[in-house]
Specification:
73% of the residues lie in helices and 1% in strands. It is built from 15 helices and two strands.
């Protein structure tokens, strides 16, 4: 199972979605791709560091507004606006994290929520910059003129809509971001975060500066959430205050728990399942929040380690059976 290049196969399958001819499937896949990055960024805190954040949407919203302001109001290109989304979100995470990581457990979670509500209130009230309650609609797509020029000698690039080109761009950028996150969690820094999650007192006893590591994880998680927000603002064709509202934090936290926190692919699996469940249930009943909530509770009780954790446990059980046989 480990020898199969699952990441490469999923990447190829994602690139083939627009070939199905349905704009809905491309829209849905684009939504999943962006939320997968958002959920994976939160997993760096929740799954690997053991810090439960109820305000992770603040950095998602900051990244979205940064991209929107730079591209719509200042007329800057996507090449500037996209990295700026991660940078500005990371800077805010440095400031907020300086206060948050001094606390533990429920106090940490409540303080992250408080800072997120401050960000939401600023986005909701600062009409001159953020557009206030109305937000900032009509965020432009990046320019794909070079793709149209290249399609003359690369025919397979032609024939797609602008939204499809943006979807391809999202796949590439999210794949690179996930690769970087994978390298981070597999590095000595990532292993130290896991040690802190398991026993922060012991880590501190052996000379590890726990607060410094937690702050670094907090900033990295915020920066990658900002990148996801920057993509989402363009994908949504507008940036609105609810991007930073606490409900967005709860959605991404549910994705992380559902897929399996502490496993790298878990949040992506949770994003796929939650978005697909939401789409299906909404089309059948107006009481979709009740039905969706019941299904999620059932799944979390049946698979306490998340869906990805359940698959890993099943694979280990199968391997043990084979070894005994």
């Amino acid at each position: 199972m480990r020898r199969i290049p699952w990441g490469l196969l999923i990447l190829v399958a994602a690139f083939c979605v627009p070939a199905l001819g349905s704009r809905f499937y491309t829209f849905l896949a684009n939504d999943v791709v962006i939320w997968a990055l958002f959920a994976t960024s939160l997993n760096l805190l929740v799954g690997y560091t053991g810090l439960v954040s109820f305000g992770h949407a603040a950095y998602f919203g900051i990244g979205a507004y940064t991209t929107g302001i730079l591209m719509k109001k200042l007329g800057l290109s996507f090449l500037v606006a996209f990295p700026a989304a991660g940078l500005v979100a990371g800077l805010f995470a440095v400031f907020f994290g300086f206060f948050c990581v001094r606390l533990t457990r429920i106090y940490f979670a409540m303080l992250t929520l408080a800072f997120a509500q401050i960000v939401w209130a600023i986005c909701f009230k600062w009409n001159e910059v953020t557009g206030g309650e109305q937000g900032m609609p009509e965020i432009p797509y990046p320019s794909f003129d070079w793709v149209e020029k290249a399609s003359g000698w690369l025919p397979f690039l032609g024939g797609y809509r602008t939204s499809d080109y943006f979807y391809f761009l999202c796949i590439i950028l999210v794949a690179v971001a996930l690769w970087v996150l994978r390298r981070i969690v597999g590095s000595p820094f990532g292993r130290m975060l896991t040690t802190i999650r398991e026993n922060p007192e012991r880590a501190e006893f052996i000379g590890v500066n726990v607060r410094r590591y937690e702050l670094a994880a907090f900033v990295l998680a915020g920066a990658f959430a900002g990148l996801a927000g920057g993509l989402f603002g363009i994908f949504n064709r507008g940036v609105f205050p609810d991007f930073a509202y606490w409900t967005k934090s709860s959605e991404v936290l549910i994705m992380t728990l559902l897929g399996g926190m502490g496993t790298f692919v878990g949040p992506s699996v949770g994003a796929v399942v939650l978005i697909l469940l939401n789409q299906q249930i909404v089309s059948y009943t107006q009481y979709w929040p009740l039905v969706l909530g019941s299904i999620l509770v059932l799944l979390l009780f049946v698979f306490p380690g998340g869906l990805a954790g359940a698959v890993q446990d099943l694979w280990r059980w199968t391997q043990r059976r084979r070894a005994r046989a």
